[in-house]
Amino acid sequence: MSITPDVSYDFGSPKAHRKPTPEHGQPQASSKRWNWPTVAGVSSALNPWWNKILVTSCVIAVLFDPLFFYIPYTSEEKKCMGNDERVQTAALIFRSVTDITFLVHIIYQLYVAIKFALSRVDETLVFRYESVSRVQMIRFAKAFSLKLSWRSFLTDVFAILPIPQLLIVGLFFNIGGNDYLLRRKIVSGFLLIQFVPRIYRIYLSSVAITESTLWVRGVFNLFLYILASHALGAFWYFFSIQRQTSCWYRTCLDTNRSELECTFYCDGSTAALITDTPQFNTTLDEQCVLKVPYNMTDPPFDFGIFFDALKNDIQGKINVPQKIGYCFWWGLRNLSNFGTSLTTSTYLWENSFAILISIIGLLLFLYLIGNVQIYMERANTRADEVREKLRIKKNDIDDWIENNGIGKDMKEEIMKNIKEKLEKDISADLDDIYSILPPNTRKVVKRFVGMRTLRNVPMLSEVDGRVLKMMCDYLKPVKFQENTMVFKMGKPFDRMVFITDGSMWTYTDHQTSDSGKATSGGLVTSSSTEAHFLEKGDAYGHMLLQLASSSFTTLPISDANVKCHTKVEAFVLMASDLRNIVTECGRCGDLWPDFKYTASQDEEADQKAPPGHFQQQQGPKKRGTTSNIHPTGYSG
Questions:
Q1: Among the listed residues 331, 335, 181, the one whose alpha carbon sits nearest the alpha carbon of residue 253
Q2: Residue of 419, 446, 441 whose CA lies nearest to 430
C-alpha cells in the first residue's frame, strides 16, 4: 500500500457541509426570509402522526359529546326544566376543538384528490371556462372520484354536522305546542344517530390497532367498554329527564290546561304559573311519585328503568362530576350484565333503549371473546412458527456460536434474545445475529468476539486493553458473498477488515516482457498473478492504524485486489471511527500507541500466514526469501 497526497478525505468536517461562499466582488445574499409552509410540506411532516392524531381526536370527541346530554336538568321544587350553562359552554368548546381536526382531514382529502386528478389531466391546467374542454372535465371528474375515499370523506362530513349544537342548545328548550312529546322524541332520535359517524371514524382510523401488540389491543377493548358505558349513562340521564317531564305534561293535560301551558321550561311562564298554584304542584307530586311508600304497590306513573335517577335526584342541578360518575356506573353495570337486571315499564321507547343496552353489551362481549380467541390462535401459531424457525436455523446458530468461541452462559442469553425477537417479529433475519441482540448484549458479544480477533493482529497484540475495548465498540459486523470484490488495487480505502469466518485472497497483476521479442505491435508481454490467502483471524488495511490521528485526512491506496474466496463474516473498522478512537484516547491520557512498521514485522506476518503464488499457465510456485507482503495491507 502507499500514500498519495492527491487523495484526501476530511472526516466529519463541518466545512464539508457548508455552502460555497460567494466570490470576491459578488453581492452577498440577503438575510433569510420567512417562507410560508406549503400544503405538501405540512402533510409530509404530519403524515406519520396524522392517523394517531385523528384517532385521538375521535376518542376525545366521543368522550365529550355526551356532555350535551347533561345540559338539561330539572328542579323538583319549581317543577321545571332548565339548562346548565357551565356544562353547555364546556360541551360547545370541546366539540368545536375536535371538529377542527375533522375539518382539516376533509380539506386534506380534497387536496390529495384534486392534485391527483390534475396530474392525470394536465398539471398546468388553469380552471378557466374558456380553457377547459368537456373531455378534460370528464377526465378530471373520473380521476377525482377514483382517488377520493368516499367512505372516509362522507364519514368526516357527517361527523362535523352541528347536530347536538342545533338540537339541544338551539331547539330542545324551545319545543312547545301541539305534539310536544312527539317532536322531542324525534329530536332524541337524531341525537342518538349523530354518534354513529364519530364511532365509525374510530373504527376506520383504528385498523392499525389490530396489528399492534397484545396489550394495546386489550386496552382498546377496555376503552370500548368505557366509552359505551359513558354514552349509555348519558342517554339514560337524558331520557330520565324526558320521562319526568312527560309525567308532568300528561298530568297537566289531565287538569284541562292547554298544551302551551304544559311545556315546563324554567325560563318560561310555566314556572310562575306553578308557583302561584300550590294545589297544582301538589297534584304533580301525587301523580309523579318519586318517593314511593312501602304500602304503594301500583304507583300512578311507572318510570321504569329511569326511576333510580329520579329517586336519587341525579337529574337536579348537582355537582356535574358526581352526576357523570353515577350515570357512568349505571351504564357499566348494566352493560356488563347485558341489561338483565333492568325492570322496565310498558313504555315502547324505554324497552327499545333496554334492548339496545343488551345488544351493545352482547356485541362487545362477543368482540372481546372473539379477539381473545384470535389472540390465542395467533399466539399458538406464532409459537409453532418460532419453534420451526429455530429448528431450521439451530445448526447454523450453533456453528456461529462455536466458531466465535462463545461460552455456555453467553450462548443461553443469545438464544433467549433470539426467541424473544422471533416472538415479536417472525421475519427477523437469523443470519445476522448481531442485529437481533439488544444493545447491551450486542456490546458484550462484540467485545468478546472482537477482542479475540484484534489480538490476532500482530500490530495490535501489545496494545492497551482499554484501546481495544474502544475499537470493539466501533466494530461493525458485515457479511460478504462469494466473489465479492472488497478492495481494488490502486483505489483508496477507508476501512480495515478483520475476518472472523471464511477466506479472501489478495492478488496483484504484473505485466512483464517475454525476452524482449518484438512484433509489429511492439514487445510480446505476459501477465503473472501473485495471490495470498486471508483466513479467519487475518486482517487487511493496517496502514489506517499508522495514519490514524485526531486530524485524519489522508487515505492510503490499496496495492492489491482483495476478493472473497468464500462467504465471509468480518468486522469492519471505519477510518472515521479510528479518528474518534484516537480522540478518545487523547482525552484518557494519550493511550493511542505509535504504530511503526519495520521489516521484521513484515517477515513475522509472512511467516505466520505463508501465501501461495500463482502464475498463469504454471503450477504453484514457492515464494522467495524476500517478502512481498505489505504489512500495512494484510497479515496473519
A1: 181
A2: 419
CA gap 454, 34 in Å, rounded? 53
Dihedral in degrees, nearest 10, Cα atoms 154, 160, 161, 163:
130
Spatial distance between the Cα atoms of 610 and 627, rounded to a whole number of angstroms: 10
Cα 150 to chain centroid distance, Å, stands at 25
- Rounded Cα distance, 503 and 506, in Å: 10
Of 191, 226, 225, whose CA–CA distance to 65 is shortest? Answer: 191
Strands of 504-519's sheet, edge to edge? 485-487, 561-564, 504-519, 522-534
Residues 6+ apart with CB under 8 A from 139: 120, 121
Cell 342545533: give the residue.
Answer: 166
- pTM comes to 0.57
The model's pLDDT over 508-565, given as tens digits with 9 standing for 90+, comes to: 866 544 443 433 334 344 455 677 888 888 888 888 887 776 566 778 888 889 999 9
The residue behind cell 409459537 is: 383
pLDDT for 607 equals 44
Is the pLDDT score of 8 beyond 50?
A: no
Radius of gyration of the chain (CA): 41
Alpha-carbon span 369 to 384, nearest angstrom: 23
Percent of the chain with pLDDT over 90: 6
pLDDT digits (tens, 9 = 90+) for 145-177: 888 888 878 888 887 888 888 888 777 777 766
Q: Which residues lie below 8 Å from residue 409, measured CB to CB, with a gap of 6+?
A: none
Q: Which residues, in sequence order, are bridge partners of residue 480?
A: 568
Alpha-helical regions (H) of 456-507: 465-474
Helices (H) and strands (E) in the chain, counts: 20, 13
What amino acid occupies position 241?
Answer: I
Q: What average pLDDT does the segment 173-200 reach? A: 77
Quick one: three-class SS letters along 156-193? HHHHCCCHHHHHHHHHHHHCCCCCHHHHHHHHHHHHHH
What is the C-alpha separation between 555 and 574, in angstroms, rounded?
Answer: 11
Please state, in angstroms and rounded to a whole number, the distance separating the CA atoms of residues 186 and 190: 6
Q: Residue 108: name the closest of 198, 38, 26, 31 by CA.
A: 38
Q: In the predicted model, what is the mean pLDDT of the chain?
A: 74
| Most confident listed range (83-87, 230-234, 460-464) | 230-234
